[in-house]
Design a protein that fits this description.
With 345 residues, the chain is an alpha+beta fold. The chain folds into four domains: 81 residues; 52 residues, SH3 type barrels (Roll); 86 residues, Alpha-Beta Plaits (2-Layer Sandwich); 51 residues. 50% of the residues lie in helices and 16% in strands. A hairpin with a 4-residue loop joins strand 3 and strand 4.
Length: 345
Amino acid sequence: MAWLTELLGDFVPALIVIAMIVVTLTCLHWWLLARRKELGNEARLPRQLILAGVTLVGLLVLILALPISDTLRGQVLSFLGVLLTGVIGLSSTTFVANAMAGVMLRVVGQFRPGDFIRLQDQFGRVTERGLFHVEIQTEDRDLTTFPNLLLITHPLTVVHRAGTLVSAQVSLGYDIHRADVEAALSEAAEQVGLKDPFVQVVSLQDFSVLYRLAGSLEEVKHLLTVRSNLRKAMMDALHGRGFEIASPTLMLQRQLQPDAAIIPNTRHLLDDSGAALPDADAPEAKVFDKADDAEALEQARQRLTSLDAAADNPERVALEQQIADLEARLKAPTEAPDQAANPPG
């Protein structure tokens, strides 16, 4: 019995360390994650990394507290180092690589929920950033998920939140003077609200000149609408000045009067009283509904962290209710576009 008592006495420091590690990790998990269930994947990522770091430190302390010889302890530490190195070295095709890529994307801070991004042939708004993946909502209102590793190994385009250039191209015949084209296209850009518009001659083709019209857009949330409206305005401006947009390489097989022009009439743009018909509703509210909710959720969380912790703060109560509503909408099954745009009640 003496040897058993002596053996237990040798392991007492290690048992105490184990108990301290369990208590510390339990309390830390509650403090960082369990009590903050409203946090999304974006906010939970650094907290999860803190837990992982504390766990690794606790493991090292436990090895140092074990009643073993210095030689064996050194071998155990060496084995642990080799194991971690092997995991990192072989992580190129595993979830560890995506986790590391997620950390890198978080540190760089290149984009956040609500931003427009383009990766390869996919374009949409970011709805969620996690430890292993990034989710976007595309122009078709579908949700597409990218592993984080893909985002750091391929060129990624992020539309600047402070503004971007919107452009469109059109080819016109050599019989139209360049100055007249520039005036018409600049007028179209101003009609859709683009700032500092400019016209470029992209290419002198065999039978036509390719022009590019571009201007600065400050409110990028309406990017899809402005792109479409810019092309509409370009057609209206060119047709209004009597310029044909038909390609000069087109061979017409009909008899036309010498002064006839291929320009559509504008009667369908007017109502019975002669007033202009309103444009169609902007598609962004239906296409990027989840991205809008994700952006609003992050902004509400940031605002909540900056408020006073007083429970009776009316603004804090309102923000907490807004966060709860947004989280419920993001977790709920995706509704049809018409239902999302016109919620009941």
